[in-house]
Amino acid sequence: MKNVFKKESVATYLKADSRLTKTLGARDLLSLGIGAVIGTGIFILPGHEAALHAGPAVTVAFLIAAIVSGFVGMAYAEFSSAMPVAGSAYSFGAVIYGEIIGWILGWALILEYFLTVSAEAVGFASYFNNNILGAFGVHMPKFLAAGPLEGGVINISATLIVLLIAFIILQGASLSKKVENVAVLIKVAIIILFIIVGAFYINTKNYVPFYPKQFHTEPFGMGGISTATATVFFAFVGFDALAANSAETVNPKKDVVRGVLGTVVVAVILYVGFSFVLTGVVNYKQLNVDDPAAYALKVVHLDTWNKLITIGALVGIFTSLLTMFFGGSRLVYALGRDGLLPEKMGEVDEKFSVPRNAVLLAMVVQAFFAGLVPLTELTSLINAGTLLAFVFISFGIIPLRKRKDIPNDGFKMPWYPVLPILAGLASIYFLFMLPTISKISVGLWITIGIIVYFVYGLKHSKLQSKSH
Fold first, then answer.
1. Of the candidates 340, 456, 376, 410, which has an alpha carbon nearest to the alpha carbon of residue 87?
2. What's the pLDDT at 12?
């Protein structure tokens, strides 16, 4: 009789992942973290969420999301320190809760990663087509600028950027690392410039009302801010991507926590500053556009700065694409490694030490969604998987501390057990605050995942085939 709650051992994962090359240090992880967190989330979401859910109080939504993510990030850091393996929440879940819970988390995060990359690619295409090609008088024909749901045939720019990212990742972690480190410095500098320059054009009337009445839905009149907060968790899925790189980190006990906490601090400063200036420069009602920062600078006739912010957005989204693609391909590799997906996905290319088949699968799926599905449809599906993983990782610290077979002598989440419980409860609250369509869609996806597990995964699982 097979036991779906059978738990994997850390030693098995460490042995399997020894094929991956350890090249990442604390600075590389910080670059990866900032690369993931400061992407479409900062260049696109503040505008949409201000217009649709929170008004200028979107600043508060980002602050809350960053604080909760920071708490959960500490849980991820402790897990990564104790278990420096590929697969992040999937692998952690399989060790702590059992195979089926690990699979559900992995399945939810596959959707998360793939759709995040697709959404980032659509955001990239929006800035590129409108502000780069448009500046040279080149206007992409409608059938090449949008997918079928928006009256076109394919979003060609979004598709091509996914293919380019796949090419870089297939060359190995060291090239990805070099590209990421340079690009992150450029985009952070440009965001800081936007905050400084935009501050001179703030019209304080745009902050009144700071939290418009039409968004005062239940519970406690915080509905609009809560929904915006739940939606912008999309920006913070980068923590899982950082953990996904634990197996390729030189000193995971120290470096992962530095990467996670450094990313939180930078994210809080940049997100809050950016959204505060954005909603001060332009009235929130005008910000429901895919390139709000560039739009805001156009409104105040700063055309030169508009081009600069476009470059920052393109570089920013590019690095985010790189990190999320990296993390998603490692998750597919981990599921293949364990037999829950076809074993070919768990193979590692000998020349470049990358899971080539996993990268190619991720490329095909992500390019398909990027080319054919609009940004708003993609982002509405993304956050539930992130928050589900946040719940299990936060509460998972409690059984992790009780496991004598896992050497947990690195970073420890503070204020145990209060902080892990608070982080888990906050994640559950925001999970329920997501739009209904998100919850239904992810519920359907997880149902499909459970069917796949019982039809395929359980039969091919390497863990199940081991003698008891």
1. 340
2. 82
Give CA torsion, residues 453, 230, 260, 34, to 10 deg: 110
CA distance 109 to 102: 10
Bridge partner list, 217: none
Q: How far is CA 392 from the centre of its chain?
A: 17
Helices (H), 97-221: 99-127, 142-145, 156-170, 173-199
Longest dimension (CA), the chain: 70
The pLDDT value recorded for residue 227 is: 81
**CA–CA separation, 192 and 270 (whole Å):** 7
The model's pTM is 0.84
Which has more pLDDT, 395 or 306? Answer: 395
Amino acid occupying residue 208: V
Place of tokens 């907060």: 229
Q: Give the per-residue pLDDT at 452.
A: 95
Region 229-238 average pLDDT: 71
Sign of CA dihedral 23, 25, 31, 33: positive
Domain boundaries, the chain: 22-464
243 — pLDDT class (breaks 50, 70, 90): confident
Taking phi over 0 as left and psi of -120 to 50 as alpha, with beta for the rest, 466 belongs to beta
Given a contact cutoff of 8 angstroms between Cβ atoms, the answer to whether 43 and 112 are in contact is no
Give the integer Cα–Cα distance in Å for 34 and 258.
12
For residue 187, the model assigns a pLDDT of 82
Please give the class, per CATH, of domain 22-464: mainly alpha
CA distances in angstroms from 224 to 50, 52, 229, 233, 277, listed in the order given? 10, 8, 8, 15, 20
Q: Which residues of 323-348 are buried (b: 16+ CB within 10 A; e: fewer)?
A: bbbbbbbbbbbbbbbbbbbeeebbbb
Q: Cα separation of 431 and 419, whole Å?
A: 18
Q: Which backbone phi and psi does 349 adopt, to 5 degrees?
A: -65, 125
CA dihedral defined by 257, 316, 250, 344, rounded to 10 degrees?
Answer: 110
Using the structure block, give the residue that is written with the tokens 């702590």: 96
CA 152, CA 368: separation in Å to the nearest integer? 14
